[in-house]
Amino acid sequence: MSRRTAVIVGAGPGVSGSLARLYADAGWNLALFGSHPDAVGALADDLRERGAAVDHEIGDLADVADTDDKLRSLAERAEEVGLLHFNPSVFREADALELSVADLLADVAIGVGGLLTAVQAVVGSMGPGARVSATGSMAADQPWHRAATLGVQKAGLRNLVLGLDTTLTPSGIRAVSVTVRGALGSEGAFTPDKVAAAIYAATWREDADWTPEVSYEG
């Protein structure tokens, strides 16, 4: 019997790593895409020790053509893509008076446009019952003025996921953005493991209970 593959975009330590380990422990194989070879390699080794087959590619989401090629290749090599998870965002400390239009657009191209690139590259390898998930943030509703692009990215990401869910539903694929309403930390309700568990749970709800956004309050 084939094992489903979870494609993790923005793979590395933190929430994406915790989520990848959840899927490995649930019997999935993993296809990782990230920008830092050491971090992706360390995660891949950990997942293999858990019994998962792991494939990976290193790339920069800012390079759309290269990202598209590498994600399509990952998806084509997978037995069956059952999940695409999108995790990346860009933190740039600059308020709206310091920020240039070019910097704003560059960050949105990664934090929002990266999801568009990923879905278009992978969706051809996904079938009914598959899921698209994304790590959202309370910055979409409560942005910090000193990280002006992050709020725009997370608001745009959520909006794109809402549209994707409507677009993909006729093919049996659902999309969800999980809005994390707290700051990640090493203790408490917002550790990477707990946030990843909330994303996993939101992703595999029944269609009758489906909403394309879920808030994780901790």
From TrEMBL:
Highest taxon of source: Bacteria
Matching InterPro entries: NAD(P)-bd_dom_sf (IPR036291), SDR_fam (IPR002347)
Alphabetical list of Pfam families matching this protein: adh_short
Keyword terms: Oxidoreductase
Record-stated family: Belongs to the short-chain dehydrogenases/reductases (SDR) family.
Name of the featured protein: SDR family NAD(P)-dependent oxidoreductase
